[in-house]
Amino acid sequence: MSEMHEATPVSQPISHFERFLDSREAAALLQIHPKTLQRLARKGEIRAMRIGKFNAESPRTN
């Protein structure tokens, strides 16, 4: 059997998480229609990912 070890504390806490935008927020930020944003994401021109039932776009492009 394997031994259980106590968790080692992280020396530096994670201070920054990248914020993701939903499709409506990203389209408003880019001043484009949400359908245009979806088309750009499908073509790979804007980095996007599906999270659960929703799509999320990174504020940064490729």
Description:
With 62 residues, the protein is of the alpha+beta class. The protein has a domain at 21-57. It has helices at residues 23-30, 34-43, and strands at 21-22, 48-51, 54-57. β2 and β3 (54-57) form a beta hairpin. α1 (23-30) crosses α2. The chain has two helices and three strands; from the N terminus they run βααββ. The longest helix is centred in the middle third of the chain and has 10 residues, at 34-43. It starts with 20 loop residues before the first strand and ends in a 5-residue tail after the last strand.
How many DSSP-defined strands?
A: 3
Mean pLDDT equals 77
User: What value does the Rg take, in angstroms?
Assistant: 18 Å
Elements, N to C (H/E): EHHEE
Class inferred from helices and paired strands: alpha+beta
How helix-rich are the residues, as a percent range? 25-40%
Largest sheet: 3 strands, antiparallel
Notable traits:
elongated; 3-stranded antiparallel sheet; 2 helices; single chain; alpha+beta; 62 residues
Secondary structure elements and their pairing?
Blueprint: E1 21-22, H1 23-30, H2 34-43, E2 48-51, E3 54-57
Antiparallel strand pairs: 1-3, 2-3
